[in-house]
Amino acid sequence: MNIFILNPNYHKLASKQFQTKLRGVGNVTVFSKPASLQSLSPLWKGAEPCIIALDPDFCDWKAPDELFSVPHLKAICLQSTSFSWINTEIAKKRHIPIIHLINWSTESVAEWAMMLAFNLARRVPIMAQNNWKEEYVTQQGIELAGKTIGIIGLGHIGTRIAEIAKGIGMNVQYWSRKSRDQRFLYMSLPKLIKTSDVLVPAMSQNTQTQGILSDKLLSMIKPSAMFISIVHNIYNHDLLINMVKHNKIFGYAFEENGGGTFNKYKGNIWAGPANAWVTKESEQRNIEQWVKTICDAAKGKFPQQVN
Predict the structure, then answer these.
(1) What is the DSSP letter of 111?
(2) Which of 30, 96, 203, 295 would bridge 209 by S-S if both were Cys, CB 3.0 to 4.6 A apart?
(3) Could you say which residues of the chain have pLDDT below 50?
């Protein structure tokens, strides 16, 4: 069995123990980011069954369809929870299992979301735009205790955000397509958006969630509310930027690929790097689970298959 690791940071992230474990189930070849897949000759010339272990950063979060033409490909193991960046339908037609990771960054992302909420509540972007000078009028913030947080999507991450928010004294309400939790108040999505002081979409990014947060719904956010984003491309980003600019909502926090600066935007807008998952603990869980899915796939087991 050939195992092709497509990851520019593999040797930095994978300990010697994990590297030894992978070598125990197959012949491991590691590729950093190449000019093209066609330049990786071992991928195309191998005569043995193979597994591709793919980091989304290797292909800038857009897996090329030519991957599915690699000879004797038995599975693709993603180093991410999201799988919207790879064509699972083509893989399914060609009987190639796509395996993803689950629940490895829940704590990190939930804590990040609350960090963003605290930053907006205390108008940290405004302070940064003012070169951190003291100014008691424009920098006056709000307390989150006693406020109502509305969580859209109650999966692993949404649930953990709800628990943390409840722990600091917030009222927690939510809308979810499938999940229900009696600890928190469920309500319709329009009512949630109209009545929440802090809105946090925590849904997966895929075709099923695209369009759930329509412009019409976003326009229902009350002027004193803030919008905390830990997801991408499932709502109108430019509309929210404009709403903050014209004081139609209190604030907006989001991740910007490559990072951003507070001075780039006007008003209470937090624009930072996409580092929600970047903690020592989550990275350890990520590589540990990824190695396990690769080893399982080498044995013909695919417990976390998505297609």
Answers:
(1) H
(2) 203
(3) none
Q: What residue ranges define each of the domains in the chain, with the CATH number in brackets?
A: 2-104+280-298 (3.40.50.720), 106-272 (3.40.50.720)
- Amino acid making up residue 21: K
Long-range contacts of 39-46 (CB under 8 A, 24+ apart): 40/4, 42/2, 42/4, 43/4, 43/70, 44/70, 44/71, 46/2, 46/71, 46/72
- Alpha helix (H) ranges present in the chain? 10-13, 16-23, 41-45, 88-93, 106-121, 124-129, 156-167, 189-195, 215-218, 237-245, 280-298
* pLDDT digits 0-9 by tens, 21-73: 999 999 999 998 777 888 898 999 878 999 999 999 899 889 999 999 999 99
Evaluate whether 91 touches 65 at the Cβ level (below 8 Å).
no
**Whole-angstrom distance, CA of residue 288 vs CA of residue 303:** 15
Give the pLDDT confidence score for residue 202 in this predicted structure.
94
Q: What is the DSSP letter of 305?
A: B
pTM: 0.89
Could you tell me which residues come within 8 angstroms of residue 44 by beta carbon, excluding any fewer than 6 positions away?
38, 70, 71
End-to-end CA distance of the chain: 22
